[in-house]
């Protein structure tokens, strides 16, 4: 690893130097419990030279002991600390060997909670710890941390530039956009308060501030300094995820945190992978086309001008009508193209909200994509069109005040009119009066806030009809070296299955190539199919030859898929959200159809050892919009039906999931809502 040190940025080098160290915190397990844990870890962890079992145990003990979690847990399990201690107590009463471990994995009876659920979490956690260690990463040929200076060459079996030239590739340092340009008094009544500065709040702020309104944005997370705080490292990137615990229930409990929510100025777009495929008319006409679900309350043609504005403002690489050429295809994209060619499935380069050319002169803090592949770790070049380098700087230049570390707890009102908002900060509780309030905190925190304040729920619809895109992944190994961590994660797209002729389901799905990082990949196979020990090690040794493909598919609204307030309290004393989700018949049929198609593509491309990882992506639909208050929470402009000046502007207002990644749709909806609020003044930002 020494010859790579000169290619690593300072934050990344610091992480790599600190990672092998043992935690400094004093352990909380008893000596007996730690001995039992060591026995279990010795069986479950892949044994890799240079990665001590004692280090894995210490890391696990520290991670569970800090109580922070990773943003969610199965409702059927107790909290991580209690679950681990209880499991260790049950393990200690019997001999710990592979047969015993396999019985736990298969759901043996006699435990006070589902042993297979606990074991999936346990294996996943062990896998993530092991493959975060530099020695474990070296054992699978991973050199991703060297990408901080950029890989400009991607492709099957092509060497990296540093291997060819033996020197650092110059990379212009990111210049951070300006910070606050306005400060409003807590005593004055501002025009608008916005809660959340992600894909809903940031474009809304830009347009309202451009119109001259006094706007305050409250962001629960921090204001990041990428040059000093973002490392090219998977474990370090977890700081960008929303990790307040959410309870997950139903037949197919969802993972949160890293999967679909972010924290900080920029929200989820900080770790968004920048896929932005275009919508089709039928995405808004689910009920008209299939007689199920809900149509949107306006046609796509009404949103089209705003979508075009987003494309122009943010910058999109891809085929026409994108404004910049496509980014280079990484290995997964090339393999998907090869397989599609063999069986006759149409495809194109993907649409990515990441700059492929340096012609965006008016934003000196944005540089072209350098193909690191670390989109989810925060883009240190500013190439990715996250809100912190696009709409937020524009809004700041026109008078926005941003207040980070501001967690909203109470909405003040008089009758059907909001008068202000209360929020907690590190300095204590604050209040801000306002003439209008926009909730843009996402499809989990926004309905949670509405339920906490008993607003908008006259028909019992807040939190109902939770939607999550079907996101089945299929992976395989290939003869060629793929280095799946390199290049833009999503390089190829096929919409041939948006309305497949042989479909036995409503809606459809997109096919997308996907990249992979070692910790994320190991975490997935540790959870499902729950590989551990030598099986996990053997599988991961092929990581440099892995490539993936996945779908983004329709999900029908169902009243049983819902968000509620649980009886458990968070660190602020507020009820945690409980999200119940089960795939129903339509989603199951999409899964079956997509798996068959993806297996055909990957087999034709030369893939072996194929396996699937069932998952859902994105959080949608919990405050759906519509024209009828009996079946919707907000109207077509985002206003809560029973309130005069309370609006929702995030992807919770989606009445159907659509078949595309939701970010650009959400930004366009925010621009449209802003103009409706401004009485259609037609202000354009670009």
Mean pLDDT: 91
Unreliably modeled segments: 1-6, 166-170
Please report the total strand number as a whole number: 19
**Terminal CA distance:** 46 Å
The largest pleated sheet is described as:
7 strands, mixed
Count of runs of 4 or more consecutive helical residues = 20
Describe the global form. Answer: globular
Describe the 3D structure.
With 686 residues, the protein is of the alpha/beta class. It has helices at residues 10-18, 31-44, 53-65, 80-92, 98-105, 115-130, 134-139, 161-165, 201-210, 226-229, 234-237, 286-290, 300-314, 331-343, 391-397, 442-452, 518-527, 533-540, 585-604, 663-677, and strands spanning 72-74, 189-195, 215-218, 246-249, 348-349, 401-403, 407-414, 417-425, 428-439, 467-470, 473-477, 492-494, 509-514, 546-553, 562-569, 575-580, 608-613, 616-620, 646-648. The strands form four sheets. Strands 2, 3, 6, 7, 8, 9 and 19 form a seven-stranded mixed β-sheet that branches. Strands 5-12-13-14-11-17 form a six-stranded antiparallel β-sheet, with helices on one face. Helix 6 (115-130) runs antiparallel to helix 17, helix 9 (201-210) packs parallel to helix 15 and helix 13 (300-314) packs across helix 20.
Task: Give a brief outline of the structure.
This protein has 20 helices and 19 strands. It has helices spanning 10-18, 31-44, 53-65, 80-92, 98-105, 115-130, 134-139, 161-165, 201-210, 226-229, 234-237, 286-290, 300-314, 331-343, 391-397, 442-452, 518-527, 533-540, 585-604, 663-677, and strands spanning 72-74, 189-195, 215-218, 246-249, 348-349, 401-403, 407-414, 417-425, 428-439, 467-470, 473-477, 492-494, 509-514, 546-553, 562-569, 575-580, 608-613, 616-620, 646-648.
């Amino acid at each position: 690893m020494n010859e790579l040190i000169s290619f690593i940025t300072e934050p990344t080098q610091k992480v790599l130097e600190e990672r092998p160290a043992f935690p400094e915190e004093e352990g909380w397990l008893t000596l007996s419990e730690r001995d039992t844990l060591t026995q279990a870890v010795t069986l479950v962890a892949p044994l890799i030279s240079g990665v001590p079992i004692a280090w894995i145990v210490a890391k696990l003990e520290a991670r569970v002991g800090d109580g922070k979690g990773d943003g969610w847990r199965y409702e059927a399990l107790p909290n991580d600390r209690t679950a681990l201690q209880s499991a260790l107590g049950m393990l200690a009463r019997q001999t710990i060997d592979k047969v015993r471990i396999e019985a736990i994995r298969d759901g043996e009876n006699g435990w006070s909670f589902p042993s297979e659920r606990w074991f999936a979490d346990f294996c996943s956690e062990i896998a993530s710890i092991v493959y975060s260690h530099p020695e474990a990463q070296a054992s699978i040929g991973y050199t991703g941390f060297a990408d901080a200076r950029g890989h400009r060459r991607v492709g099957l079996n092509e060497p990296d530039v540093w291997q060819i030239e033996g020197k650092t590739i110059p990379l212009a340092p990111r210049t951070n956009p300006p910070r606050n340009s306005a400060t409003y008094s807590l005593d004055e009544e501002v025009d608008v308060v916005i809660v959340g500065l992600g894909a809903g709040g940031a474009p809304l702020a830009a347009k309202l501030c451009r119109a001259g309104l006094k706007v305050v944005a409250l962001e629960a997370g921090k204001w990041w300094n990428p040059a000093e705080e973002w490392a090219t490292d998977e474990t370090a990137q977890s700081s960008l995820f929303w990790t307040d615990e959410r309870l997950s229930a139903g037949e197919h409990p969802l993972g949160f945190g890293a999967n679909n929510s972010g924290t900080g100025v920029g929200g989820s777009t900080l770790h968004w992978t920048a896929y932005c495929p275009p919508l089709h008319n039928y995405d808004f006409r689910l009920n008209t086309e299939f007689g199920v679900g809900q149509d949107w309350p306006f046609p796509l043609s009404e949103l089209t001008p705003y979508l075009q504005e987003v494309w122009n403002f943010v910058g999109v690489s891809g085929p026409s009508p994108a404004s910049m050429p496509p980014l280079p295809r990484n290995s997964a994209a090339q393999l998907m193209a090869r397989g599609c060619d063999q069986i006759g499935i149409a495809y194109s380069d993907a649409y990515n909200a990441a700059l492929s050319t340096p012609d965006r002169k008016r934003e000196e803090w944005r540089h072209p994509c350098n193909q690191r592949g670390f989109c989810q770790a925060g883009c240190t070049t500013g190439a990715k069109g996250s809100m912190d380098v696009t709409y937020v700087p524009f809004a700041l230049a026109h008078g926005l005040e941003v207040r980070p570390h501001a967690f909203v707890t109470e909405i003040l009102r008089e009758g059907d009119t909001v008068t202000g908002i209360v929020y907690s900060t590190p300095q204590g509780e604050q209040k801000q009066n306002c003439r209008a309030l926009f909730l843009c905190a996402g499809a989990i925190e926004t309905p949670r806030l509405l339920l906490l304040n008993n607003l908008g729920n006259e028909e019992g619809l807040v939190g109902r009809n939770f939607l999550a895109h079907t996101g089945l992944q299929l992976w395989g190994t290939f003869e060629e070296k793929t280095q799946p961590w390199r290049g833009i994660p999503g390089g190829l797209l096929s919409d041939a299955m948006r309305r497949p002729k042989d479909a036995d389901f409503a809606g459809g799905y997109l096919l997308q190539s996907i990249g992979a990082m070692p910790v994320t990949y190991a975490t997935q196979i540790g959870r499902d199919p729950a590989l551990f020990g030598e099986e996990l090690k053997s599988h991961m040794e092929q990581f440099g030859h892995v490539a993936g493909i996945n779908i983004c598919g329709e999900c029908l609204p169902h009243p049983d898929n819902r968000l509620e307030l649980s009886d458990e309290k968070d660190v602020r004393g507020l009820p945690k959200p409980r999200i119940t989700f089960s795939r129903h018949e339509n989603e199951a049929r999409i899964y079956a159809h997509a798996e068959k198609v993806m297996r055909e593509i990957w087999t034709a491309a030369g893939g072996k050892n194929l396996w699937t990882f069932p998952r859902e992506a994105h959080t949608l639909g919990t405050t759906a919009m519509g024209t009828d208050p009996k079946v919707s929470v907000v109207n077509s402009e985002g206003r809560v039906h029973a309130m005069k000046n309370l609006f929702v502007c995030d992807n919770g207002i989606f009445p159907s999931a659509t078949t595309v990644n939701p970010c650009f749709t959400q930004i366009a909806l925010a621009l449209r809502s802003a103009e409706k609020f401004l009485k259609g003044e037609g202000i354009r930002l670009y």
